[in-house]
Description:
Elements: E1 11-20, H1 24-32, H2 34-40, E2 44-47, E3 51-55, E4 61-70, E5 74-79, E6 82-90, E7 96-106, H3 110-130
Antiparallel strand pairs: 1-7, 2-3, 3-4, 4-5, 5-6, 6-7
Helix pairs in contact: 1-2
Amino acid sequence: xxxxxNKKFKMKTINWKICLNTDSKSVFNxxxxxxxxxxxxxxDAKDNGNIIxxxxxxxxxxxxxxxxxxxxxxFHIDYFDSLVKxxxxxxxxxxxxxxxxxxxxxxxxxxxxxxxxxxxxMNLKAVVDFGCDLRNHxxxxxxxxxYVNN
Length: 150
């Protein structure tokens, strides 16, 4: 009989891309600054150099290590024990494409994480392209209760 310690979990990768009508520098600033991350992703996301302390609407927290920063092009972090890579490519007319690659997602968490990134990325687009935050900021109406606009 296999023990839990010996059990190998299958890891998966999530890939998303989104077209933004904003320049790569502005998008990079949203990803890499405390105020930027707070504006679209988490209730709070202060960093102390190489660690981001995320606080989410349901009270969950995570200390995320910053792994790579390439100005206006790439930002990599450890995120819930997986690797998240944001890559930005400039396109026409001061626009850009943002690529999200989340490697090492446990198969049992895949569906929730996969859809969760859609929520994060669409809110990023709303903030950066239209200046509005789609989240409700209500601790009683979070992802845990089935709300996509947590």
